[in-house]
Design a protein that fits this description.
There is one protein chain. The chain is α+β, with helices and mostly antiparallel strands. The strands form 3 sheets. Strands 1, 2, 3, 4, 5, 6, 13 and 14 form an 8-stranded mixed beta sheet that branches. Helix 3 packs across helix 10, helix 4 packs across helix 5 and helix 6 packs across helix 7. The protein is globular and about 70 Å long. The two termini are 43 Å apart.
């Protein structure tokens, strides 16, 4: 039985092996980028205005080269608040200068009056009726400085950045989900197989989400491959590859946007709203082009809405070996495509430095944008 479990795990790991396919087709751009407090800045935007009263203290913090967990430990040691009593909307990068909101019980407010730390500052305080929970943010604003950028590469980056700003980008989960050795998802599989038991609930859930995330990325990569095939093969060749009829192929090739919608896709009003199926591809692709709706990918688990028709065929190619885990996971849908907002680029030829600024809705990664631009 143990041998069979190990064989199952190995088989599943082999099936997840893939490479993120970018939407843009240019060659790699050589620059220098370091995630440090001068060159990488993240500013969290709260989901709502704080009420000004209530039992929860909200602190706006600025941390330098600290993970969110490390910052919470520092605050816990100083204030006496237990780690489980802090609330936060999401984990922020360790390397860089990051701003985010943290909640804690208001009764501990005086304990922070004399707080001081070389890498962590409390910028402001608010009161609110609710504890901040995961996902309670609108999104994040980013500042990224690239160095050793010559004039030619600056032009290439500018062209790629403008294209992404116009058409959007593939919403891959960033490397942060998968760990230093890109193997967090393997522990997620082992948890689901019953091979290991992680007592810390947050770590356990994070490893499970890493497993869901890598499957999502694999499916998104398959969809990007299909989109590139549209530009590479004629209709007859495309129909042969995917075993599609003439009408379905025409629906795909007629679409203006690089990312092609498929019949049976689970769509969602953008940036939020209800899920529904893509029945009329021509109509929905026009709405997708104007950012009225978006297309979603599966996060494996029970109660998650599945694709239909041809979209389901592609979905099953990735997820079929893993549906057995559905009862143990909370499934959902996530946007396959994302967009920049408030995008700005500046270039200093004398210093050979190029700066990118943009806002991303929650759930999208700045490192994914950077990987798309630089390849």
């Amino acid at each position: 039985m143990q041998k069979q479990k190990e064989e199952d795990i190995n088989f599943m790991e082999e099936n997840i092996t893939f490479k993120n396919i970018p939407s843009l087709s240019h060659e790699k751009i050589e620059v220098h980028f370091s995630k440090n407090s001068n060159d990488f800045v993240v500013r969290e935007q709260a989901l709502y205005e704080f009420s000004g009263n209530g039992e929860h203290l909200i602190i706006h913090i600025c941390k330098k080269d600290l993970s969110t967990v490390e910052a919470l430990r520092i605050l816990s040691e100083f204030s006496g608040v237990k780690l489980k009593d802090f609330g936060y909307a999401g984990l922020k990068d360790k390397q860089g200068l990051t701003f985010q909101y943290i909640s804690l019980p208001r009764k501990f407010e005086q304990n922070l009056n004399n707080f001081s730390h070389e890498k962590l500052k409390i910028l402001n305080k608010f009161y609110h009726t609710n504890k901040i929970k995961i996902g309670h943010l609108k999104g994040n604003s980013f500042f990224i400085r690239l160095k050793k950028v010559n004039k030619i590469n600056a032009l290439k980056i500018k062209q790629a950045f403008e294209t992404i700003n116009k058409q959007g980008f593939a919403n891959y989960f960033g490397y942060q989900r998968f760990g230093k050795f890109n193997d967090n998802y393997k522990q997620g599989i082992e948890i689901l197989q019953g091979k290991i038991n992680i007592k810390n609930k947050k770590i356990n859930n994070f490893l499970l989400s890493s497993f869901q995330s890598i499957l999502f990325n694999a499916y998104l990569s398959k969809r990007l491959e299909l989109c590139h095939f549209v530009n590479t093969f004629n209709k007859k060749e495309f129909a042969s590859i995917f075993k599609l009829g003439k009408d379905e192929v025409n629906e795909i090739y007629k679409q203006e946007h690089f990312f092609k919608l498929l019949k049976g896709d689970v769509l969602c009003h953008y940036p939020f709203g209800r899920n529904f199926f893509c029945e009329d591809v021509e109509k929905e692709s026009a709405r997708f082009f104007t950012r009225d709706i978006n297309v979603t990918g599966l996060l494996l688990g029970k109660n998650a809405m599945k694709n239909k028709d041809f979209a389901l065929v592609l979905e099953d190619e990735i997820f079929t070996p893993y549906y057995v885990f559905n009862p143990s996971l909370n499934g959902s849908r996530r946007f396959l495509w994302s967009y920049l907002e408030e995008a700005n680029l500046s270039y200093d030829e004398e210093k050979a430095q190029l700066c990118l600024e943009f806002f991303l809705q929650k759930g999208s990664y700045a490192t994914t944008v950077l990987e798309e631009i630089l390849h």
